[in-house]
Structure formats: structure tokens, C-alpha cells
Amino acid sequence: MSGNIWRSLRSFISPLFPASYRWPAMDVRLGDRYLHLVGSIHMGTRDMQPLPARLLRQLQQADALIVEADITQGGSPFDHRGDRPALSTRLESHAMDTLIALCQEMNLSLSLFDHLPAWQVALMLQAQQAQMLGLRPDYGIDYQLLQVAKGLNKPVIELEGADAQIALLTALPDDGMALLQDTLQHWHTNARLLQMMVSWWMDTPPRQPDITLPVTFSQALNETLIGQRNAQWCHRLQALAAGNYVVAVGALHLYGQDNLPEMLKRP
Q1: DSSP-H helix ranges across 25-140
Q2: Would you say residue 82 lies in a domain?
Q3: Using omega within 30 degrees of 0 as the cis cutoff, is the peptide bond preceding 137 cis?
Q4: What is the pLDDT along the chain (267 residues), one digit of tens a residue?
Q5: 81: in domain
Q6: How many other β-carbons are positioned within 10 Å of the β-carbon of residue 181?
Q7: Nearest to residue 130, comparing CAs of 207, 48, 210, 213?
Q8: Which of 11, 36, 135, 264 has a CA positioned 20 to 30 A from the CA of residue 27?
Q9: Could you tell me the residue range of the domain that residue 258 belongs to?
Q10: Which residues on neighbouring strands pair with residue 27, listed in sequence order?
């Protein structure tokens, strides 16, 4: 590839990784589209409110806010009926022992989960774990950004929407059993990962996307929940009209393997 063609490509898709942001974020230019990619946490601590003034100015100057889904409206992933066989017949004995121990630790009744889809049990356990670590949905970054954007009458663009997210979960093989097994197996690692992401907002955000993250998903689940969705979002972002956008997606989508910024850099 000649130097002129390479320089032309770099000017069309140009990543900018400023060292000055106090939150996990990076800027990407796609021709005449400017994206401020924000690594969101869906549940946050009280200290994460209000959002940094500089980020709020970015949003005020943006043409639209882009999120995975508008979580201020739409259905809940916890509305599915509990008509499955008992978990003891679906989970291996060691995983069942772990679940029983966690229920005792969190003072939860196993009957809450017993007949639910496995993916729903996993999400409920993850939400309970986040609450035990002091995280609340009202302090989540995307929730706060959505509230501010609506107060400013900014357009909100969904990358997939809540219905698509629920459809993805319900389409997981074996009722999402792999997600539940990974949740149980990597319980303590996931807690450390949540604490790491909080520290990105409170203390030291990473400067580059290619960092090593703790493993909390199997390779197959990581491809389904991270890699494939990042590829779909990449196409959506590349198809945007000219403009300036704030893009808030889960922090795990911006860092580590198959991250969104690296996909956007590819010609």
C-alpha cells in the first residue's frame, strides 16, 4: 500500500486516545463523524453522580447520544415466567452447591430462581452481586447520560434496544446455562472486575483499549456477548450521518479482546 493511500485511510478512520479524560473514554473519527466512546457501567455508586462536567459539555455539544438500549423505557429481562424444571435437575452438583452457598451468603431463597431460565438466574445473581458492592442502577453511567440527554432534548439512538438484548439472551443455547455456569465459576473474579470498572471512573481510567481483563466468560460466550455485538455496532456507527456523537456502551466493549475501538480502526 502506498504512503499516500495509507495516510488517506488514517485521516478517514483516526483513533485519538487523549490522556486527559478522567473517565474511561476515547475519541474516534470516522471521516465526518466524530465519536466520543464512553465506557459505561450499568450500575454505579453514589460518588459517580453527577457526571464529570467535561463529559456533560461533550453531551451538550453532541448531535445525539448513542446507547446500547434506552434503559429508561422498555421491557425488563426479569419478566420471563418460571416454568423450567428445578435447577437441581439442570445444574451439575458442584455448580448447584455453589449456588446454594451464594444464596445463603446473600440471604436469598433458592426458590426465587428454581424454575427460571438459566440466563435469567445469572442476570439476577449478577445484579445482586453489584448491589452488595454498593452499586445502584440510578447511578449507572448510561442511565445518567440518558436523563441528561432527555433534559437537553437530545436525540437518543439505540444500537440494539432492550427487545434485541432480551432476544439475544433467550436465544442462547441450553437456555443460557453456560452464562449461569460462568457466573458461578467466576463469581469472585467478576466482583474484582466490577471494582476495577468503578476505579476506572473514580481513580485511573485506562488509556488504551488493548488491556488484559480478568476472564469471566468462556470463549464462546465472549464471542456471542462481546465480539459479535461489537461487530454489529461497528456497522451501525460507520453508517451514521455526519455529526458529533457521544456513544455510551458497557466498558467491557471498549477494552480487551475484540474491542469496539479496534474494530472501528480496521479499514
Answers
A1: 53-61, 93-105, 118-132
A2: no
A3: no
A4: 444 433 333 434 444 444 479 999 999 999 999 999 999 999 999 999 999 999 999 999 999 999 999 999 865 666 666 789 999 999 999 999 999 999 999 999 999 999 999 999 999 999 999 999 999 999 999 999 999 999 999 999 999 999 999 999 999 999 999 999 999 999 999 999 999 999 999 998 998 888 889 989 999 999 999 999 999 999 999 999 999 999 999 999 999 888 999 999 887
A5: no
A6: 20
A7: 48
A8: 135
A9: 3-74+87-265
A10: 16, 36
- The SS3 call for residue 156 is strand
135 domain-assigned: yes
Q: In total, how many domains does the chain have?
A: 1
Neighbours of 98 (CB within 10 A): 17
Q: What order of strands is seen across the sheet that includes strand 156-158?
A: 13-16, 25-30, 33-40, 243-250, 64-67, 156-158
> Is the residue at 237 inside a domain?
yes
C-alpha cell at 128: 445482586
Using left for φ > 0, alpha for ψ between -120 and 50, and beta otherwise, residue 180 falls in alpha
